[in-house]
Amino acid sequence: MLDILKAPVLTFQEFIGLSARAMSGVVRKPYYWDDVFVQMDLIGVGSLPVVILTGFFSGAVMALQMSRALQTYGATSQVGQIVAITLVREMGPVLTALMVAGRNSSGMASELGSMKVTEQIDAMRALGTDPVMKLVKPRLIATAFVLPLLTVLADFLGLVGGWIVACSMLALTTGSQYWNTAWRALEYNDIAQGLLKPFVFAIVLSLVGCFYGMRASGGTQGVGRATTQAVVVASVWVVVLTFVIGRVFVTM
Amino acid sequence: MSGETLPCILSFEDVTFGFEDEPVLRNVTFSLRQGETLIVHGAAGSGKTVLLKIALGLLRASRGTVRVFGRDVTGLREHDWFDVRSRIGVLFQEGGLFDSLSIEDNVAYPLLNQPLLAAPQAEIDQRVRESLDFVELGHTLDKLPSELSGGMRRRVGIARAIVTQPALLLYDSPTAGLDPITANTIMALILKGRDVQRASTMIVTHRHQDGEILERYRYDEASAALRPAGAKGSPSFTRYMVLDQGRIAFIGSPAEFDLCADPLVARFASR
Ligand SMILES: Nc1ncnc2c1ncn2[C@@H]1O[C@H](COP(=O)(O)OP(=O)(O)OP(=O)(O)O)[C@@H](O)[C@H]1O
Ligand SMILES: [Mg+2]
Description:
heterodimer; A: mainly alpha; 8 helices; elongated; B: alpha/beta; Rossmann fold; 2 domains; 34% helix; binds adenosine-5'-triphosphate; binds magnesium ion
């Protein structure tokens, strides 16, 4: 029993070690701003199409599914409120994070993984740079900055998707009523939650991607394994953390 | 020539290392003196790469003492290793060239990133050019590593290793996977790097010819050619080491190496 637990516990310990070094590194020199901007471009601009599409259709589908339930209560005018709350609190952050996990955690794991197996990470250390500062920190900073922005964008496009379905397709409500209820439904608490979540997810997504990349071993096969593990672990963390953060906010 | 009086550049005392529970190096003890060349042979998986990585501080010995340039580095923190590493040049087995950087930036990397080697940009450019000219790749400055052949990449690796003019050079399998002619070119460059800068050199190799070249030839700066050692000036100062499953099976002079009766060692000698 202890033997089964030993490996995951050791892995988690290593992960915490890397996280601590990367996070304490955020406030220390050296900064490689070029790498940060490259990563922002890669994560932010690169993820735009997929975030736009998932955001838009998740809002649309929500309005669609809610329409029946709301009709039975005669509360179709509330559709904006429901779409807004579910999107901002939950769907926007989680779906965006899952997309970025699939695109960027995997990308980080495979990039750093191939650097590891071709001894580029060793070469970095041998030639005077700390890979945590040079590789992990820029990815951490870039993701933490970009993911909340992507989430806001997804939230907004989801509302637009819901609006198109609710007003044009199903004629559940008028446009002004939709936006009115949506806007008024959102409390300070929801916005805080909707922005805190992507920030926390960003830290986890980037660190998990880098962690599995940096510990890849065993040639190209190892890189593939690292990539898969990174996506799976990052996605699971997102789902678990959204519950944990949601729980904290609900009791507040 | 008595090597005993020269300062010790690298020494391992009873070093043991293992990944998880599996021992990879066991009770390894040796030293490398100034200007000396140590040729390391050993079967695949015998721990040669691990040995070099411990010398560079990329891996940490589980037991024993490691000294580099006379300094005890056994428990050195990563941060303090950078100063030590700035005086070591290394060519990795897998190349370790940064594939997102151009050849020029690859070779300039140690000069730009080692705090102790900071220099004005113009000087860096010049040294990078010199170093690439040295390996006859001056025309590839703007190319990416992926655009070069395997032998050319190996040469860029050598250029990057010697650009800092290190006192200690570590080469991991520099000729592996190359055709004999390219391999000999690489060895000539390594020889040249060793003799021009008088660096201590530790080289891991699978080819016995590589050892012979290092043992029997010297690079003569005046005539810019290889000459048999001993013909002029001091004889080269070479020793062989054979690793077997993490233990030193043999370490000694070329003559002892040639005469060693141990079948395991004889496999690597040219007989
Ligand atoms: N990252 C690692 N994790 C676990 N074991 C490793 C790791 N790297 C190397 N080993 C093991 O350590 C032993 C020595 O490896 P090393 O790379 O030093 O061999 P080598 O002598 O350089 O072989 P080759 O001639 O094939 O390069 C091998 O048995 C290998 O399986
Ligand atoms: Mg090796």
